[in-house]
């Protein structure tokens, strides 16, 4: 009889995790087929009507998955922005601003329900215009946008409880500018609290993603929202600057890059305008050696590859405890080998198209810098479609804090891995960034989660999960990730005066 030790020594050693998976098997294509009901041309939405831009100019919106044209979009100039603010001020003075909260609630509930009714159509339009996988726009963006309207509709007749002991009043007209990564959801985050509080709105969506915003204008019409309560002006950066700088705006709310946020803050310094800024991020996702590693790997993948990494709170820096670093890296490589990259309209696609050619160029340049600075790159050998803007999921190991890929926001499907030995080192490395929007912690110990959530300078800290959102939960940044909160009671406080 062999001894136990002998038995152990003859047992074949476990294959390294890298060898467990073979090639990816192929599914048949499963394209989503719902009709997005697109119009060939979209005008501005001012005073409850679709109106042509005064200049008569339009620009083209394309589908980043195949570079084909989707629609013409109106280019708003300063005159159009003036008209939108005049309509919003009129609505504030005569209808929306004077309406009791319980009446406003009815309209906001109606918007939420109409959006639910047209959810599939909106999901397809969002995917065509922005490039994100249909399973995300269908299961996340559109339902979450509807949830934001439902949640804020529920607040509209209970505003006395927003700041107990104080009276709240709307500010007036608010100007809002949003980015392209969650076009409909960012729109909902911006307009739902503003409307619940009794403000009226002028909003500019991003240049590459206007369509779901203008489709929502159709819903606002169908809901019978008083004309001028919400106005949409489409265009490029200059249109955004005109919206942010307009003298009628009592408050401006911006979501976008830290770079543009700083330009806006400089231009508004010394004015009376209230401001909230939701800016960039470089989140640390921190994995300790006692974490359930398979679960953590799913969280890491979701944290950085969700929506092609076009996520301000993406877990773009993985800080992994040294004893498990090799195992986590091997598991991650296996996992990303089986991610499906390609047609965003296919229900099996995990990683869709990068939103624009310009963004693709920025991602590629930062990835090149990572290679040049000596980090080790891994990309699966997946085939990319011939047309459209695509980027392979990418993992860098051997990254140090001085590398650009560890410091700058990449806003693409690129993960930088750093290691740590102690809790304090993890905290120090996580906080060693100009940003502070979010962080993730993976560990079995509740006490460690509590310590980390206190010490991490980030607006959101997820524990043993990542990228979880809820309208009741405030979201926002520290440091160069901005100020102000969106969602929850705190988000409403940013849209009112207290008396
Ligand atoms: P961006 O370049 O800053 O653009 C954001 C918006 O600002 C767009 O609508 C843009 O219009 C407009 N804009 C450009 N120049 C302007 C100016 N001078 N004045 C006023 N508006 C101007 O950002 P992005 O590339 O679209 O979005 C990615 C960034 O957004 C990332 O940094 C990400 O982290 C951040 N983000 C933050 C959050 C958050 O909650 N903290 C959420 C989502 C995204 P055009 O599109 O026409 O250029
Ligand atoms: Mg587009």
Short overview:
The chain is of the alpha/beta class and 499 residues long.
Rg measurement, Å: 24 Å
Helix content: 25-40%
User: The CATH topology of the largest domain, please?
Assistant: Aldehyde Dehydrogenase, Chain A, domain 1
Largest sheet: 7 strands, mixed
The coarse silhouette is globular
Number of domains: 2
Q: What is the top-level CATH class of the largest domain?
A: Alpha Beta
Q: What percentage of the residues does DSSP assign to strands (E)?
A: 15-25%
Low-confidence stretches: 7-11
Number of helices: 16
Secondary-structure map with pairings?
Blueprint: H1 4-10, E1 41-42, E2 44-46, E3 49-51, E4 58-63, E5 68-74, H2 78-94, H3 101-117, H4 119-130, H5 134-155, E6 168-170, E7 173-177, H6 183-197, E8 200-204, H7 211-222, E9 230-232, H8 237-245, E10 251-255, H9 258-268, E11 274-278, E12 284-287, H10 293-305, E13 317-321, H11 325-337, H12 357-372, E14 376-378, E15 394-397, H13 404-407, E16 414-420, H14 423-431, E17 438-442, H15 446-455, E18 460-463, E19 482-483, H16 488-493, E20 496-498
Parallel strand pairs: 1-5, 7-8, 7-10, 8-9, 10-11, 12-13, 12-17, 13-16, 15-16, 17-18
Antiparallel strand pairs: 2-3, 4-5, 6-20, 11-19, 14-15
Helix pairs in contact: 3-5, 3-6, 4-5, 5-6, 10-11
